[in-house]
Design goal:
Helices cover 38% and strands 19% of the residues. The protein is α/β, with parallel strands linked by helices. The protein has one domain: Rossmann fold. The protein has a seven-stranded parallel beta sheet with strand order 3-2-4-1-5-6-7, with helices on both faces. β2, α3 and β3 form a beta-alpha-beta unit. It is globular, with a radius of gyration of 16 Å. It binds guanosine-5'-diphosphate (GDP) and magnesium ion (MG). The site of guanosine-5'-diphosphate has 16 residues, from α2.
């Protein structure tokens, strides 16, 4: 773990030197990480130099999906069973990425609300997603993940009514556990709420 933290510090220094702002996206499988990135690339990709590293236990499916929305390299990491990415895998993936020509870097972590909580990847901001279809209580059930988040995004807002999503309860749980997180609510399918997320990215980029 100490070695992993050292490697994460190396990654962080490398990204800061290249003036890249980096996001580590975490959530349950299926909460909408890849869909949010597809939409973000489609909406901002032409204006901003965005690079992506995707982590999955098996397959390059997410990287292939994202590659359709950008002509930049989307670097896939297959963890072969591991339930999270680690800083060494990110460091290796970054060897392939043109960092000097990157403003924003998204790392899509393995879908899991437990393991990724303990692994610093060298990111600037940790982004946790909570979809309206997975229940309002996830922040209470997985406090380390939600507590460590800098940004919390309620996704699939278009499905809230069908899923019987209790928005007030979910926001109260998020505010209780994700103390310092900035909260967004959106649908990457309909585009509803995307504007505030995109504005946030533009505002936070390193200059
Ligand atoms: N209705 C709706 N479906 C979504 C939304 N975001 C993702 N999905 C769907 O949810 C499923 C899982 O999404 P995906 O992006 O692969 O989740 P990931 O495992 O977190 O990367 C897919 O079938 C997506 O089409 C959304 O905002 N609204
Ligand atoms: Mg995905």
């Amino acid at each position: 773990m100490a070695k992993s933290d050292e490697l994460a510090a190396d990654v962080r220094r490398r990204l800061q030197a290249a003036r890249v702002l980096t996001f580590n996206l975490v959530s349950s499988p299926g909460s909408g990480k890849t869909t949010l990135l597809e939409r973000t690339l489609a909406d901002l990709g032409a204006e901003f130099a965005i690079s992506v590293v995707t982590g999955d236990v098996q397959t390059q499916n997410d990287a292939d999906r994202l590659a359709r929305h950008t002509d930049r390299l989307v670097q896939a990491v297959v963890t072969n069973g591991a339930c999270h990415l680690d800083a060494r895998q990110v460091a290796t993936a970054l060897d392939e990425v043109d960092l000097n020509n990157t403003r924003l870097l998204f790392i899509e972590n393995v879908g899991n609300l437990v393991c990724p909580a303990d692994y610093d990847l060298g990111e600037d901001l940790r982004v946790v997603l909570l979809s309206t279809t997975e229940g309002e209580d996830k922040p209470l059930k997985y406090p380390p993940m939600f507590h460590s988040a800098d940004v919390a995004i309620v996704t699939k807002s278009d499905l809230a009514a069908a899923a019987g999503f209790n928005r007030e309860q979910a926001l109260a749980n998020l505010k209780r556990v994700s103390h310092h997180a900035e909260i967004f609510e959106l649908s990457a399918k309909t585009g509803d709420g995307m504007r505030s997320w995109l504005d946030f990215l533009v505002k936070r980029q390193r200059v």
